[in-house]
Design a protein that fits this description.
The chain is mostly helical. It has one domain: Helix Hairpins. The chain is built from 4 helices and no strands. The structure holds magnesium ion (MG). The site of magnesium ion has 4 residues, from helix 2 and helix 3.
Amino acid sequence: MSFKNCQKDVDDWVNQFKNPYWPPLSILARVTEEVGELGSELNERYGGRVKKSTENVKDIGIEICDIIFALFCLANSHKIDLDDSWKNVMNKCWGRDNKRFERKEDNENSKQV
Ligand SMILES: [Mg+2]
C-alpha cells in the first residue's frame, strides 16, 4: 500500500495553477469544510438533519475522498511523504496501542513489535 501515487495525482493537478497550494490555514479550513459536508450527509442519513429540498444525496465515499484530497494538499505543501508517516502511525498501533483495546477471543492477528 502506498500514498505516493495519490500524492502525485494531487500534485500534478494543483501544479497546473499559478498558486498550487493554499496557505496551511486555508487548507485546514478546506479540510473542515469537507468534514462538514460529510457530517451533514451522515446526519441526514443517521441523525436528525433533514435535507433541504434543493439538496441532493451525496456519495459518502466521494465526501471522504474530498477530505483526503485536502489532506494530501496539506502534506504535499509541506513536502511530507505520507508513506513514512503512515509507517510511524501503524508502529504506534502495533506498539504503544497493541494491548490498549479488548481483543476478540480468537484473535491471532496480534503482532509483536
Ligand atoms: Mg465534499
